[in-house]
């Protein structure tokens, strides 16, 4: 049997304390995909830390900018090229900031509830994102184009509560649901935005042996879809559900 050992030097990871504020603790954080920048979310602001290079110790990074917020920032997500930062807040809003200018580009709210939204950027279309309430009984997914010269959006409504979302192309995304199924939708963002159902999938193994598993799942027979991941290079879709199963399949 192969033996696995920890080959990392004991000093490879070092605890570093960086004092940013005397107020509440950091509620969220996310590294920039390209630049040596770390976004940190607090109760009423976002602090951007920046280093002179990626090899610079983070203890020497300086505050580049402070972005004021109306509520506690519970999630932070950069888009693929690092030109925009999305902040999901406790008051139910998602704010999109331009980087490095710090300009507030867009503020969206799916509905009137106090629950922070999850933002999922499209890696193949850097200005487009999907937003939904992961920890609430919500059947809505808001798709937006945050381009500087555009503000198109589409309010997608499902028959089931949404548990996760993943982009699989420039204009297609897959929504996972709490009852064990998933759907691939094609979204067209324009002045008259539309969506088209491409495919229905069964993720939960509990319903996979039924002659009509999708209808059974809609009746409450499936387990929640907990995660969906798309690999663009291999063109493979991986899904997991709360029945402890993982399924891998090619895009359909």
Structural commentary:
By secondary structure, the protein is an all-beta fold. The chain has two domains: 135 residues, YVTN repeat-like/Quinoprotein amine dehydrogenase (Methylamine Dehydrogenase, Chain H), CATH 2.130.10; 92 residues, no CATH class. Helices cover 2% and strands 45% of the residues. A four-stranded antiparallel beta sheet has the order 1-2-3-4, with no helix packed on it.
Short description:
By secondary structure, this protein is mostly beta strands. The protein is 2% helix and 45% strand.
The N- and C-terminal alpha carbons lie at a distance of: 39 Å
Strand content: 35-45%
Structural domain tally:
2
Largest sheet: 4 strands, antiparallel
| Tertiary shape | globular
Q: Give me the strand/helix succession.
A: EEEEEEEEEEEEEEEEHEEE
Tally of strands: 19
Mean pLDDT reading? 84
The CATH C-level class name of the largest domain: Mainly Beta
**What is the percent of helical residues?**
under 10%
CATH topology of the largest domain: Methylamine Dehydrogenase, Chain H
Multimeric state? single chain
By CATH, the architecture of the largest domain is named 7 Propeller
What Rg do the Cα atoms give? 20 Å
- Low-confidence segments, ≥5 residues, pLDDT <50? 1-5, 208-220
Give the structural class. mainly beta
- Summed up, the helix count is 1
CATH homologous superfamily annotation of the largest domain = YVTN repeat-like/Quinoprotein amine dehydrogenase
Strand order of the largest sheet: 1-2-3-4
């Amino acid at each position: 049997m192969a033996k696995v050992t920890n080959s990392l030097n004991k000093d490879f990871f070092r605890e570093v304390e960086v004092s940013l504020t005397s107020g509440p603790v950091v509620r969220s954080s996310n590294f920039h995909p390209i630049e040596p920048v770390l976004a940190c979310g607090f109760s009423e602001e976002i602090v951007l830390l920046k280093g002179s290079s990626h090899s610079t110790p983070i203890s020497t990074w300086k505050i580049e900018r402070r972005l004021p917020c109306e509520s506690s920032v519970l999630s932070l997500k950069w888009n693929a090229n690092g030109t925009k930062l999305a902040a999901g807040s406790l008051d139910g809003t998602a704010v999109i900031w331009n980087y490095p200018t710090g300009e507030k580009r867009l503020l969206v709210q799916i509905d009137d509830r106090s629950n922070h939204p999850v933002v999922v950027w499209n890696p193949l279309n850097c200005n487009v994102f999907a937003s939904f309430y992961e920890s609430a009984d919500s059947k809505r997914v808001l798709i937006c184009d945050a381009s500087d010269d555009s503000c198109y959006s589409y309010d997608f409504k499902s028959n089931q509560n949404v548990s996760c979302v993943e982009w699989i192309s420039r204009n297609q995304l897959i929504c996972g649901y709490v009852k064990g199924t998933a759907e691939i939708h094609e979204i067209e963002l324009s002045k008259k935005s539309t969506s088209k159902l491409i495919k229905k999938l069964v993720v939960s193994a509990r319903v996979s042996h039924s002659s009509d598993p999708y209808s059974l799942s809609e009746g409450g027979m499936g387990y929640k879809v907990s995660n969906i991941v798309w690999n663009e290079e291999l063109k493979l879709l991986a899904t997991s559900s709360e029945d402890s199963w993982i399924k891998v399949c090619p895009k359909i």
